[in-house]
Amino acid sequence: MRALAFVCTLNSSPTPSSSHLIADQVMAEFESLGVSGEVVRVADHDIRPGVGLDMGDGDAWPALREKVMAADILLVATPIWLGHPSSICQRVLERLDAELSETDEQGRLLTYGKVAAAAVVGNEDGAHKVSADLFQALNDLGFSLAPGAVTYWVGEAMQGTDYKDLDGPPETVASTTRTLAVNAAHLARLLTGGPYPAS
């Protein structure tokens, strides 16, 4: 089993990132369950705007798409900006939109059988709204969602503390992260053994 995390912080490496931190924590839980993985900070790659598989002119998306296709689980980690997922997160969803035109010999999307989950951080309210946006988009794109498919942390409104500034994850966040990993890995294994039928 393989997991891929897209970290959708606005900052490229090596700038510290709360989104990257919570993604690393989810991936550590996956590792403990025998799921290997990779974390990709999307801002480090030249992802062109559009809804095609390859937008040409040095577009980095085709190589990242290969990683998506090789993974059983996709984690999308995003900060909250103005109550919404980051613009980079939106670009990832827009590029995944091309998968709606890609099907197997039985007419199923190539993303069928893949599990998606979300990790959300921010200093303002909106984690439920952001996860709802991600859930709808990822499900539309053919991914399956396990129960408890999001882990999140939201700091006090109008304050400056970030998730990465904490001494460690609060117990409730750590527990939620564990549940996300356990359920996502379980569902991914079930789908590997029993793919969706043609419809």
TrEMBL record:
InterPro entries: Flavoprotein-like_sf, FMN_Rdtase-like_dom. One of its GO terms (molecular function) is oxidoreductase activity. Residues 8-148 form the NADPH-dependent FMN reductase-like domain. Pfam families: FMN_red (PF03358). This is Flavodoxin family protein.
